[in-house]
Amino acid sequence: MKVDGRVERGEQTRRQILLRAAEIASVEGLEGLSIGRLATELEVSKSGVFAHFGSKEELQLATIRAAAKIFATRVVEPASTAPPGLARLELLLAGWLEYSERRTFPGGCFFYAVQAEFDARHGRVRDTVAEYGRRWNDLVRTTIEDVPDLAVDPAQLAFELIAFLEMANVQSVLHDDPDAYTRARTAVRSALERATRRP
């Protein structure tokens, strides 16, 4: 079936808007987004941007969903190619560190940035950010649960591992620490060795 050229161009414009919106939000937060700014930067009309989203809140929600899709492509999907167990967990954690270190988003981890922005607020945007945070926490925990012969509580280990990842992100982004990701990889490796009783 042939796709209408106008529809395809519209979808391409929407993708471009959301990618730029996610890049901005990773640095300035979701409140830093505006239809006027995106229109100017992408050289499209304000009415054209507005037609895609209708309001700032809808733009913010769409930006979160777009960032989640990128995160899944860069971090979750590659790890899922490994069989359940330690190899998948290691791939998942390594993928997150690479996603942050290589600046998939210029501000580091998109979700770390927007969680800090919305953690004490109320509303649809905050609830959506929180939901994606829960999904990530649950994914790490359930991936840990598939590792045989664990010597620790999976929920506790998930908490600690995610803390290592997020600390690397903030130390790199905020303090420009060149050793942040190396330290995080060392911490992750040590935690997994203890958890699996590997020599």
From TrEMBL:
It comes from the Bacteria. Residues 34-53 bind DNA. GO terms for molecular function: DNA binding. Residues 11-71 form the HTH tetR-type domain. Keywords: DNA-binding, Transcription, Transcription regulation. InterPro entries: Homeodomain-like_sf, HTH_TetR, Tet_transcr_reg_TetR-rel_C_sf, TetR_C. This is AcrR family transcriptional regulator. It comes from Saccharothrix tamanrassetensis.
